[in-house]
Each structure stands twice: as structure tokens, then as C-alpha cells.
Design a protein that fits this description.
five-stranded mixed sheet, 4% helix, 1 helix, mainly beta, 37 strands
Length: 427
């Protein structure tokens, strides 16, 4: 029984050793005239001492050493490739595999993006170790390579867009491959713009109205027609220093190289010229007025107090501005007036119901109150009296108008000074 077990173990170990010796290799780039790459994939139970190759099938393992080797085959055909591995026990194992070396064929082409209306240029960049006998094109994506032939040609597409273009190459030995690429036919942009605020010395604003495909980037070139530097911003502003008509050019270049140009006349209008004329001195006394006139070539004048017209009557001091316009262009001027406060007491008033000079006034009484007032007629009779006068006596006594004539007042305000004088009533 013991002998039977030992025999079984011997057979088992022997079989395991056979399984451990797995010889194989992979290869790639098996084309004539190219470097074919061989990679050892063997698995052995012992340490490997040498790896030798017979790559031309002559039985001699001297074409390469190591796990990875390269070899160039001069012609197509089937070759026997041998792999010999020597292990630490100096035992050698050999493995032979037949490989087929064929022709290589790489299909590709280049094209230049064309703008719609222009023919697209195509050139085949295909390569083969075999003789290329035909190069056929499919331009309408119908799967048939019958639209054109040749290694270099031009083709006119009917509209802008993206087209699937195919090229099929056949070689002398019957090898054939095809390739499709997406070819862009670019749209031509539409250049357009508008201009606003076209007045001398102001920022003229240009609005870009050009139309270009949403997925296309654009470059803009502006020429303003006055000899100034070009601009490349989308919506530029520009200042013209002289009135006139300028030829403004906008060039739109798409990222695909398509271009469109428009030229428009932009009329730059002059700023209206005017000056201000005063009817009197700009320094005057309270209660007086001054008329200010805007004189010049303009369509409308608007004063800072809201008055519209060529002239305005002003009674108050301070700063004022007038803005004139013509053809949408504006000009303005500023000036100031000084009004000197009246002081003292009026000695005449006319309470006749016309709304003017109806009350006896103490100028700027608000700075003097309280003021007591007594008024007498020529006979010495008191016709009016108050302890807090507010410029509100209109020449009446007991609600009845006093006759025209001279009356006399006694005035005492918060300054403690008593003032006397005469008042004349005129109706």
C-alpha cells in the first residue's frame, strides 16, 4: 500500500511539473517593412536563464534575446517564429508559432475649412506598405464611394454645416479600408451696426448688430473713418472732434476664417453754439428782476428752474443752468445771480385790489418780530394798532378803506429802537 501511494505522488508531481511549463508569446504590428514586436508570455516553474528567438524560421535562435524583441520582415507571408527558453537546470524548452506578415494600410485625410460658397480642399494622407490603386470619396454620406476619386481634390458643398465625408483606399493586393470624418463648411457672418449719440465731442456709441453662428467665435475690427486707431471690441465708443460725415467700417472675422464687411456713413453733428445775454446787472435788489436770454442756433432751451423757452425772468439769487439742443446734440451754460436783501420800511403802498403792493411792509420783519405798530392820521387819531405786526395792514380802519393821503407810524421791534415816519396811501 505504501508503494502504491509513493507511485501516485510521483505521477502527480510529474504532471504538475508539465503544467508549470507554459510557453507562448504575443506579437503586434505584423506589417511588412514595420517593426513587429514580440513579447514572451511563457510561465515556467524554474528560474529563466535565457530567452532566445528564431524570427526568420531558419532554426537558429539568434535573431533576438530577452522577453521583448523587434524584427522587420522584408516581405509579406507566413513565417515560423521560434522561442527557446533555458532555465536554471540548463534544460531548454522550445515553442514555435506561425505568424502572418501583411501589408499595413492607414487611411486618413486633411481638409481646409471653407466658407459657404467656396470649394473645400481635400488631400489624402493615407499610407500603405502596399501599392495604393484607388482612393474614392463619399461626400453625401450615402455609404457609396462614388462621388469623386483621387488623392487631392476640391468639392463644393451646397450649404453651411457639418458633413460626414468618407475616403476608401484599396491596395494592389486587395487590402481595403475606409474612414469617415466630420467636415465643417463655415457660414459667412453678417456684419451690421448702428450708431447713437452722434455729436461732436461726445462719446458716439456703436452697437454691434452682426449675426454669426452661436457656436462660432468672432473677431471685430472697427475703422472710424477719422484716421484714429482701430478698435477690436464688440461695441466700441468713439469721440469725434469735428462735425461731418464719416465712413465707418466694421469687419467681422469668424473663427473659421470667414469674413464680412459693412461700411456705413455716420453723420456727426455740431454742438449748438449760443451765448447768454442779461437785461441788467446780475446783482440786484430784492423785489427787482432780471431777464436772461439764450441767443444762438438751437431748437430748444430748458432752464434749470423748469422754464422752457429762449428767455426767463428771474427774481431770486443762486446758480442757474440753461441747456440748449439741436438735432439731438446738447450744450449748456451756467451763471449765478446775487439778490441783495431790502432793508427799511416802505413809505408808500397801493391797496387798490390789483394784487400788487397791497400791504404796508417792513422788510424782513421776520428778523425783527415782535414789532408793535401804531398808525395815526393827520389829526392824530389812531387808525391802526398791533403788538405783533406781520406786514398785514392793507390801509383799512374798522374794516373800511382809509382815504388816500399821508399817515404817521410809530414802530418798536425787538431791537428796542423806536422808529417814526410817514406812510402814503394811494388807491
Amino acid at each position: 500500500m505504501k508503494k502504491l501511494v509513493l507511485a501516485f505522488l510521483f505521477i502527480l508531481f510529474s504532471f504538475s511539473g508539465i503544467l508549470a511549463q507554459t510557453l507562448n508569446f504575443d506579437y503586434s504590428n505584423a506589417y511588412v517593412g514595420k517593426e513587429t514586436v514580440f513579447v514572451n508570455k511563457s510561465v515556467l516553474s524554474e528560474e529563466v536563464i535565457t530567452v532566445a528567438w528564431d524570427l526568420n524560421g531558419n532554426g537558429v535562435y539568434n535573431n533576438g534575446w530577452g522577453d521583448t524583441v523587434n524584427f522587420v520582415y522584408p516581405s509579406t507571408g507566413v513565417y515560423s517564429v521560434g522561442l527557446r527558453i533555458t532555465v536554471q537546470s540548463l534544460e531548454s524548452y522550445e515553442f514555435i508559432k506561425e505568424i502572418e506578415i501583411g501589408h499595413d494600410l492607414i487611411v486618413n485625410f486633411d481638409y481646409e475649412i471653407a466658407c459657404v460658397g467656396n470649394a473645400t480642399s481635400f488631400i489624402s494622407t493615407s499610407e500603405s506598405t502596399d501599392v495604393i490603386v484607388s482612393q474614392e470619396w463619399d461626400f453625401n454620406n450615402d455609404g457609396l464611394f462614388n462621388d469623386a476619386s483621387g488623392s487631392s481634390l476640391n468639392f463644393l458643398f451646397p450649404a453651411a454645416g457639418t458633413y460626414n465625408v468618407g475616403l476608401r483606399i484599396a491596395t494592389q493586393t486587395g487590402l481595403a479600408k475606409a474612414l469617415y470624418r466630420q467636415v465643417v463648411v463655415a457660414d459667412i457672418p453678417l456684419a451690421d451696426f448702428s450708431a447713437s449719440n452722434t455729436c461732436v465731442g461726445n462719446y458716439t456709441e456703436f452697437t454691434n448688430l452682426s449675426i454669426i453662428r452661436a457656436d462660432d467665435a468672432a473677431e471685430y475690427v472697427w475703422k472710424f473713418g477719422d484716421g484714429s486707431d482701430w478698435s477690436t471690441v464688440s461695441n466700441p465708443i468713439h469721440t469725434y472732434n469735428s462735425p461731418g460725415i464719416y465712413n465707418v467700417t466694421l469687419i467681422v472675422n469668424s473663427s473659421f476664417g470667414c469674413s464680412n464687411t459693412t461700411v456705413k456713413n455716420v453723420s456727426i453733428k455740431p454742438i449748438p453754439d449760443f451765448y447768454i445775454e442779461f437785461s441788467g446787472d446780475t446783482v440786484f435788489t430784492e423785489g427787482e428782476s432780471i431777464t436772461v436770454n439764450a441767443i444762438g442756433d438751437f431748437d430748444q432751451a430748458i432752464w434749470s428752474n423748469g422754464v422752457t423757452g429762449n428767455s426767463v425772468v428771474l427774481t431770486e439769487g443762486g446758480g442757474y443752468t440753461v441747456e440748449v439742443s439741436k438735432d439731438g446734440c446738447l450744450n449748456s451754460a451756467s451763471f449765478s445771480l446775487q439778490v441783495i436783501d431790502k432793508v427799511g420800511i416802505t413809505n408808500l403802498f397801493t391797496p387798490n385790489g390789483d394784487g400788487y403792493n397791497e400791504y404796508w411792509k417792513i422788510f424782513h420783519i421776520e428778523n425783527l418780530i415782535p414789532c408793535s405798530v401804531s398808525i395815526y392820521d393827520r389829526s392824530g387819531a389812531e387808525v391802526y394798532s398791533t403788538t405783533n405786526y406781520l406786514n398785514d395792514w392793507n390801509g383799512t380802519y374798522n374794516g373800511q378803506p382809509l382815504p388816500e393821503g399821508t399817515y404817521y407810524y410809530i414802530l418798536k421791534c425787538n431791537d428796542g429802537i423806536v422808529k417814526k415816519g410817514a406812510i402814503t396811501i394811494i388807491r
